[in-house]
TrEMBL record, chain A:
The keyword NAD does not apply. It comes from Cellulomonas uda. Residues 77-155, 418-494 form the YdbS-like PH domain. The keyword NAD does not apply. This is Membrane protein. It holds the Pfam family bPH_2.
């Protein structure tokens, strides 16, 4: 309503006209499936029905449902329009219940281009803008032609970065995202096979990801910011990692159990039980491979670019400073090949079933790649030798790498893993290390700390221990250090509150291409 | 954010005198390290922090709620035991009575353990005797503040203030504030948050 006044009429755009058909086919499939399922209950009478003129009626019903569904979708399409201004994205939608949504671009947390299989075949894509507003707060623009979606993404990212439209501003000082190349010096880690230390890129490009030095007058239109690939996940490793999972172990145990039962009972009926189990496990495995397939990460001035997916492809862009926390985790079975899963917290990716897909920074990383992934998020770990620190965090214990470990008393509360509990505070971030069986490291940049907590149970109090908790935005990472010495934890709480404050004061602005004010 | 109407005149509108904190160290057991240096801040007693306790009426409210829950159950069990003459029915009755007694002893201590402190840049909230918790919320990280008071709480003239950051893990709620104090705290938090506004 009121924002109609501020949006010029010609700025309103519509999504692609094929959208209703693309969205409607799911409804049709569901209806046909339900009808088919009902009919299958009584195959004979269904056959009788279809044998006569019944099939005409059936076809008529399907066509009618399709028409009604398509009509509604077309109506919805007519009512949906969006506009991009310098400050915000406006989206109007809804037939009966109208919604007007306005997402401020300086609050943009991530931009995803999602292509389900069918949309990809038609050359369409969905653009999804994540803002930190809790569940359902994303602005979904579906479907656009793929080049349009790409262009729109570049435009949104450039505007969110604080650049002005060339026509409107024409300010000579405004940097084009396309010219920011010198600012990023990405190490050749992925393909080369050399063990490039993340320490090296930090030294080579101390201001990596920061405001690029060479600002050049903006070109006529927003160009897609250049990107440099940092790592890619080879398919064999993904399959190997999926096989080395609890799912497969469970499946193998089940098969052995089934076969043993069948042999003992001299009856094949126990094997029939395995079929649904196979389907379930197979589905889980397929989901994992599907999501992680052709995973690639790249760095651009717009932030981290992630591309992945086999049937449904997803290209994510997480602008600088939007990652709230990182976790590196090693399941037991991945210890042999030394693989790690790297996950991130991004406000906006918090809720929904797709969150687990969107919050992966690297599905299966080698140790080098894990360090590189961490470097992507946090170019400056705030220590002299970042690689040594990462090593100590990943596999060290006690005081390795300058960590403050849990005291000896902690062995009563955690007899197995107590030597792994530890915390290290650097100039820029807090590293929490834990887990002996399932190794785990969480990293939180100081300026991303939301709030801090201290917890103590009765046993811990007897032993003079306390747990230190860092509250981060919703996501897979929940950083905490268990069983620290009580005094250490209290001191940490005090200092960390202070550190978070100073780090926030010095943090770069939300619009990452803007000069610091 | 709604401020509960102050139905009855609050007898203690100002923040309570924090002399209650003086007897709190008694709650802390002299653990295995009695030779703690007095200078170092104890885990839940940061240095230079004066805790503001919550209203004692919270204890009354919670005890009343407890009595309203357990009372009918206990009465029913006793009546059943008397009516049927089944002696085993006294066992659950005794259990319920013991629960009530335990609650009656625990609740006032729990309420006394609740406290908050406003520092220059953050708010501290602590709770719990057995399982202790201390939360530090920087003002600049606050997304919104809730003031709520149910019908029961309103009868006792208390309200609760809850702080929300972008993290759902931030459990910074202060129960049992007199409505005037709750409103004061809300406005103060809001203005301080605005002054130190930061993104995510």
């Amino acid at each position: 309503m009121s924002d109609d006044d501020r949006v010029p009429a010609q700025a309103w755009r519509r999504v692609h006209p094929v959208t209703p058909a693309l969205k409607g086919w799911k409804t049709l499939v569901a209806v046909v499936a339900i009808v088919g399922y009902q009919a299958a209950d009584d195959v004979r009478s269904a056959a009788d029905l279809l044998g006569g003129r019944g099939w005409l009626i059936a076809l008529g019903v399907v066509v009618l449902v399709a028409l009604v569904g398509w009509g509604y979708a077309a109506l919805a399409w007519r009512h949906m329009r969006f506009a991009v201004t310098d400050e915000a994205v406006h989206l109007h939608s809804g037939v009966l219940f109208r919604t007007q949504r306005q997402a401020r671009l300086d609050r943009l947390q991530a931009v995803d281009v999602v292509q389900p299989l069918l949309a990809r075949l038609l050359g369409l894509a969905e653009l999804r803008l994540e803002v930190a507003g809790g569940s359902g707060s994303a602005v979904q623009l579906a479907y656009l032609r793929e080049p349009d979606a790409q262009r729109l993404r570049s435009e949104l990212l450039a505007l969110a970065a604080g650049l002005r439209r060339p026509s409107a501003a024409g300010a000579p000082g405004s940097a084009a995202p396309g010219t920011a190349g010198p600012g990023i010096a990405v190490p050749a880690v992925a393909g080369s096979g050399t063990t490039t230390l993340p320490g090296a890129p930090v030294d080579a490009a101390p201001h990596a990801g920061e405001h690029p030095a060479g600002a050049v007058p903006a070109p006529a239109a927003f160009e897609e910011a250049p990107e440099q690939e940092v790592y890619a996940l080879p398919m064999p490793r993904l399959i190997g990692a999926s096989v080395r999972s609890g799912t497969v172990v469970g499946l193998v145990l089940l098969v052995i159990g089934g076969v043993v039962a069948a042999v003992v009972a001299r009856d094949v009926s126990p094997l029939a039980v395995l079929l649904p189990a196979f389907l379930g496990f197979g589905g889980a495995l397929w989901g994992r491979v599907n999501a992680g397939a052709s995973f690639r990460a790249a760095l651009s001035p717009d932030g981290i670019r992630l591309r992945h997916g086999l049937t449904e492809q997803r290209a994510q862009t997480v602008p600088p400073g939007r990652v709230q926390a990182v976790r590196l985790l090693q399941p037991v079975l991945w210890r042999g090949p030394d693989w790690w899963r790297v996950e991130i917290n991004v406000a906006g990716y918090s809720q929904g079933q797709e969150a687990s897909r969107a919050t992966v920074l690297h599905p299966v990383a080698t140790r080098d790649e894990a360090a590189t992934a961490l470097w992507l998020v946090l170019p400056d770990l705030g220590v002299e030798d970042p690689r040594a620190l990462v090593e100590a965090a990943l596999s060290g214990r006690d005081e390795d790498g300058g960590f403050t470990p849990a005291p000896r008393a902690a062995r009563w509360v955690d007899p197995i893993g107590w030597r792994r509990h530890g915390v290290r505070v650097t100039r820029t971030a807090l590293l929490a290390r834990s887990g002996r069986v399932v190794r785990q490291v969480s990293v939180v940049p100081h300026e991303r700390t939301q709030s801090l907590g201290l917890e103590q149970g009765p046993v811990q109090r007897r032993l003079g221990l306390a747990s230190f908790v860092v509250h981060s935005t919703p996501g897979p990472v929940a950083p905490r250090v268990n069983h620290l010495d009580g005094r250490v934890a209290a001191a940490l709480l005090d200092e960390q509150a202070e550190r978070a404050r100073t780090a926030r004061a010095a943090a770069r602005p939300e619009q990452w291409m803007r000069e610091r004010v | 954010m709604t401020t509960p109407p102050a139905e009855r005149p609050t007898d203690q509108p100002a923040p309570h005198p924090s002399d209650r904190t003086a007897d709190l160290p008694g709650d802390r057991p002299t653990g295995p390290t009695p030779d703690r240096p007095t200078g170092a801040s104890l885990p839940f007693e940061p240095e230079g922090v004066t805790w503001t306790p919550v209203s004692g009426r919270l204890a009354t409210a919670r005890l009343t709620a407890l009595a309203l829950w357990l009372g009918p159950v206990l009465a029913l069990l006793v009546v059943l035991a008397l009516a049927t003459g089944a002696s085993w029915l006294w066992v659950p009755a005794a259990v319920v009575a013991a629960l009530g007694l335990w609650g009656a002893l625990l609740v006032p201590r729990q309420v006394r353990a609740l406290g908050y402190a406003e520092r220059a840049d953050d708010l501290l909230v602590r709770r719990g005797i057995m399982f202790r918790q201390l939360v530090v919320v920087p003002y600049g990280r606050m997304q919104y503040v809730d003031v709520s008071a149910g019908p029961f709480a309103r009868r006792f003239g208390i309200a609760s203030v809850q702080l929300h950051t972008a993290s759902p893990a931030t459990t910074a709620s202060i129960d049992g504030l007199p409505p005037a104090e709750a409103a004061r705290l809300r406005d103060r938090l809001a203005s301080r948050g605005e002054a130190r506004l930061a993104g995510l």
